[in-house]
Amino acid sequence: MRAHVIALTLLVAILPWALAQAARAGSGASPGAAPGEAPCLSWVNPRVSPRAVLLCVHGLGLYSGSYEAFGKRMARLNIATYALDVRGFGSWMKNQGHTQVDFNDCIADVQKALETLHKANPGRPVFLLGESMGGAIALRVTALYPDLVSGLISSVPAGDRFKEKRTAASVALHALKGFNKPFDAGEKVVDQATKNPELRSKWEGDPLDKMDLSPHELLQFDRFMKENHDAAKTIVSTPVLIVQGCQDQLVRPKGTIELFDELKTPDKEIVLVANAEHLIFEEGQFTDDVVSTVHQWISRRISGSANTSALSDVKLLEGKQNLAEGQYDKAEKIFQEAVRIEPESSEAHLLLGQAYARTRDYARAREHLLRAMKLGKGNEHTKDANKSMLGLPAPDQHAISASGTDVDTLLTGLAPTGGSAGRSLRRRPIVLYFYASWCEPCQDLDAAIERAKQRYGRTVSFIKIDVDDPDNRPLLDKFSVGPVPTLVFLRANRQVASYAIGYSDGGSGLWAGLRKIAYRR
Fold it and tell me: Which of 49, 110, 335, 411 could form a disulfide with 352, with the two C-beta atoms 3.0–4.6 Å apart?
């Protein structure tokens, strides 16, 4: 306790001198540093034009590569994602004279990057995301250049930190040894940021993560973070999403909420992530729910339906809580209302379908899960809906009537039906393989299908059917196809012999179905 008091006394004594040193040093820029030329990483799907663009700014001690996993997920959702290095971190450390933390030039870097992204993606909205220190930088850039930011996503941007007095005492003691002399500040930061030993090891072991910081840099960082409150008050119209982990032991949730309240924009939301620590987007710490939240928030700003969607979001959050607590009837009513408010929301249909499944209303569950799959178009909600459907009871194959004429007509264009090939097809049993390009179990089943073709190819026809192709909808309806993969085994007279849904045990359902309709030559 006595040492702590002495350290605080020293801090008070040297603080005026330290601030004067910081003022004389300016922003900490090194000679020759050129604003707007920050190293940058990108995650973009080159085969499609992006729906939106997202620029990410990392937290203290990290670098642009910490967004790799998140960037890849967003790219799969057709949101081109970029991340740049803040001055003094990441690739800047390799450049002679560019190793000092510099917030002023970093803001210029972000501004330049936003301008470049707008030029490269004309007509596409450009969003800005930052976490911790990066969240504060993104907040400041949004306040200064609102015309460049279509929407701000800021995670834990507040400067109100746990153990702040202890940190100040440590900085004061090291300042006495040298104001610009770096020391290892990372260990304590990492200890507060996460209890995950794997993440700690990764964070501390990455050579591009900067753990050594000088008292000058830390004071500059502290001052910058505390100025966020003034910046928040100047954001008057830009959409803002604030995110905070409830298990964060580094930034106080109270400080983030206060910062949120100071935002003047009417289009603002705050999301408290129940089990999240300090990092939410970086180093792969995000969850599917976090990705869904960001994706839906961006999608609503693209479509311009923020007001009705915000109401739907409130419903979804309330319903998720009821679902987790086993109050399925309440969850059903809430999700029904969410679907009414936003009938094109894949997430709302997904959750309503899951709620119906819990109450064993399988027909309605199937209806809404199928709707979620169709609306999701291969996104995370599509995959979750497919997974949920795989857990439902299989449809009654005996309730499906399939005459030879009907089936052969529906298969026109998918398999040869004319000449000798057509006559051969009509005499053969058929395996209908319903799949989707986004379906991971389908990829596992493909190898088993190829082995089956080698064994039974002379006596059985295999027809692959893409469930996302609207031309195939009559076949899906005919055989009540829900989740994928689904295999339908037809005898030569086109009567249904068996179904196999999903993939497990090396394709055991495939082999069992084949034994019912054919023999191996």
Answer: 335
> What distance in Å separates the CA atoms of residue 333 and residue 435, rounded to the nearest whole number?
33
In the chain, ranges of CATH 3.40.50.1820 domains = 2-28+41-302
- CATH number at 397-517: 3.40.30.10
Torsion of CA 13, 19, 22, 23, to 10 degrees: -140
Give SS3 for 70: helix
* Marked catalytic residue, from 40, 56, 106, 439: 439
Question: CB-based contacts of 436: which residues, under 8 Å, 6+ apart?
Answer: 378, 386, 442, 466, 467, 468, 484
Closest CA to 220 of 323, 93, 133, 155: 133
Looking at domain 305-390, its CATH architecture is Alpha Horseshoe (1.25)
Residues carrying CATH 3.40.30.10, the chain:
397-517
Separation CA 169–CA 6 (nearest Å): 9
Q: Is 123 within 8 Å of 93 (Cβ atoms)? A: no
Give the contacts of 412 (CB within 8 A, at least 6 positions apart).
none
Tens digit of each residue's pLDDT, the chain (521 residues): 433 333 333 333 333 333 333 333 333 333 333 334 678 899 998 877 888 999 999 988 788 999 999 999 999 888 999 999 988 777 766 665 556 677 888 899 999 999 999 999 988 999 999 998 899 999 999 999 999 999 999 998 886 654 454 544 454 444 445 545 544 555 555 555 555 666 656 656 665 555 655 555 566 677 778 788 899 999 999 999 999 988 887 778 888 899 999 999 999 999 988 888 888 998 888 888 889 889 889 988 886 444 444 445 667 778 888 898 899 999 999 898 888 777 778 888 999 999 999 999 999 999 999 999 988 878 889 999 999 999 998 766 555 555 455 777 777 767 554 444 444 566 789 999 999 999 988 988 999 999 999 999 889 999 999 998 888 888 888 888 889 999 999 998 888 898 899 887 677 889 999 999 986 44
**Annotation marks residue 442 as catalytic:** yes
Q: Exactly one of 40, 56, 106, 442 is catalytic; name it.
A: 442
| Encoded amino acid at 445, one letter | L
Supply the pTM of this predicted model: 0.51
